[in-house]
Write a structure and sequence with these properties.
6-stranded antiparallel beta barrel, Elongation Factor Tu (Ef-tu), domain 3, 15 strands, globular, Threonyl-tRNA Synthetase, Chain A, domain 2, alpha+beta, about 35% strand, about 240 residues
Length: about 240
Amino acid sequence: MTALLFRDEPYAREAEARVVAASPAGVALDATIFYPRGGGQPGDRGVFVLADGAQIAIVDTVYDADRTTILHAPAEGARLPLIGERVALRLDWETRYKRMRAHTALHLLSVVLPYPVTGGSVGDGDGRLDFDSGDAIVDKAEVEARLNALIASDSEVRTRWISDEQLAANPGLVKTMSVKPPTGAGRVRLVEIVGLDLQPCGGTHVARTGEIGRAVVAGVEKKGRINRRVRIALAPAGV
């Protein structure tokens, strides 16, 4: 089982780990800072640095079939590390940080539009959510103004855990209709934007909403009689 360092240390850009399995399909480590694809967020990229200085490009990160081990996909034809070898992990931080900002912004978008979420995805500084909004009018300018007001509040973002039983007793915490939070392990991770939002999520997020920067509502699309797709894009960090 891979230790998920990214959960407690989402800002970690480098770490060391030991190789427990290696094949062209993926390299498994005893611990990782690389986020595996899931929940609408892409898998991280970066490099492994071996003891002799050689680098292995990692082009994707995914869970294995039983979701207990994380596989780091090497570039085609890349040299593989040896089992037991220690490697230095270097994350593609610029890409990860864009995804952290966008993912947190999507949580705030679900506050602005408090409707059931039927789908979504996190991009590299952009993203989308699909809402079953019924007959409500989704006004692009109004949504953008309200979203940026929440971002500007610079609210703290933090995580905590509840039991499967506590989640079952509070079904209103789950906003996503298409992807249910994983249960069966005894506990579920909650992401809280203090004073604004609380929902199950396994992704990576910024520590404060002010880090997101200005957001633009790039489009509102009709995807069905009661369904609307809202796309957002973020300005560069610090703008």
